[in-house]
Amino acid sequence: MLDDQDRALLRRWQDDPDLSPAQLAEAMGLPAARVSRRIARLQEAGVLTGLRAVIDWRALGYGVEISLRITLEKSAPRAFDEFLAAAREVPEVVEIQTFLGRVDVRLGVIARDLHHWQALWRDRILTLPHLADIEALMTVATVKAEEALPL
Amino acid sequence: MSVEIDETDRAILRILSRDAALGAAQIGARVGLSQPAAWRRIRRLRDSGVLAGRRLELDREKLGLGVTVFLGIKLAAKGRVALEDFERAVSAIREVARVEHMLGLYDYRLRVVARDLADFERVLRRRIMTLPGVGQVEANVLLSEERRPGPL
């Protein structure tokens, strides 16, 4: 189980994930060896599962962000699996979430512009298997994007 | 204005989006570059804003945050002041991890992180439903989530 120091460490690291373990130790006023040991333990316990780079797709020319709310045709027994496998094949799909509620699946899709989006929509999205209903919303602005969990 | 990147940059981004703890020497070895050459490319990607930082990936359930709910919110009133008031108030709620202004079926999409369903209900009733200008609210409970590498 996590103790208070684990939580403090994760809180501090979430606030500034660019810190190296040594810098994190310094920021917390703890010996570097102890911080490394705790990080290793959190990894072994499966609490800390990765450290990944965040890519700003806008900087690479992907200016359009679309959220697709999808209901699947669930009469086919493997509808979910087949749909998810096909969605993974579309490079512009950056997020796949499944839900309990009115929506079965949400796909986060990026496109260079609306012209590119139209091509994606017709050639890659509407051709996905087992679609029953699909609705597209466009992200106008991200007001708050806190990756940090409230620990 | 977008940043031009080549195949080697793409390879570096693919590696870093899986494991951002790797150093320039390890990355260089994987893409066939010397440590200094890899370091220069990584710095260029960072300076140009393509690499926007790192993110810790944590197991929410093991941290006692078992429930994530996405809320679609329609505002009852839609003047500019109404939007600003709502955005300010909703961004201040600790359990609301993400707020996106949307065009389409609803106006805002919120990602809410809670300990369990009872905790979520408390946040929904006390914090969200009392926000200024809230109209219709739709909730979907997250079952699974995966981030894809994207078009690299």
From TrEMBL, chain A:
Transcription regulation keyword on record: yes
Gene Ontology cellular component list: cytosol
InterPro entries: AsnC-type_HTH_dom, Dimeric_a/b-barrel, Tscrpt_reg_AsnC-like, Tscrpt_reg_AsnC/Lrp_C, WH-like_DNA-bd_sf, WH_DNA-bd_sf
One Pfam family, short name: AsnC_trans_reg
GO biological process terms held by the UniProt record: response to amino acid
SMART domains in UniProt: HTH_ASNC
Record keywords, A-Z: DNA-binding, Transcription, Transcription regulation
Domain HTH asnC-type span(s) in chain numbering: 2-63
One Gene Ontology MF term: sequence-specific DNA binding
Keyword Transmembrane helix on entry: no
SUPFAM superfamilies documented for this protein: Dimeric alpha+beta barrel, Winged helix' DNA-binding domain
The protein, known as: Lrp/AsnC family transcriptional regulator
Taxonomic classification: Bacteria, Pseudomonadati, Pseudomonadota, Alphaproteobacteria, Rhodobacterales
From TrEMBL, chain B:
Domain HTH asnC-type: residue ranges: 5-66
Keywords for this protein: DNA-binding, Transcription, Transcription regulation
InterPro entries: ArsR-like_HTH, AsnC-type_HTH_dom, Dimeric_a/b-barrel, Tscrpt_reg_AsnC-like, Tscrpt_reg_AsnC/Lrp_C, Tscrpt_reg_HTH_AsnC-type_CS, WH-like_DNA-bd_sf, WH_DNA-bd_sf
Any Pfam family the entry gives: HTH_AsnC-type
Coiled-coil spans in chain: none
GO molecular function, one term: sequence-specific DNA binding
Keyword Transcription regulation included in the entry's annotation: yes
GO cellular component: cytosol
Protein name: DNA-binding transcriptional regulator, Lrp family
Protein's organism: Wenxinia saemankumensis
Native organism taxonomy: Bacteria, Pseudomonadati, Pseudomonadota, Alphaproteobacteria, Rhodobacterales
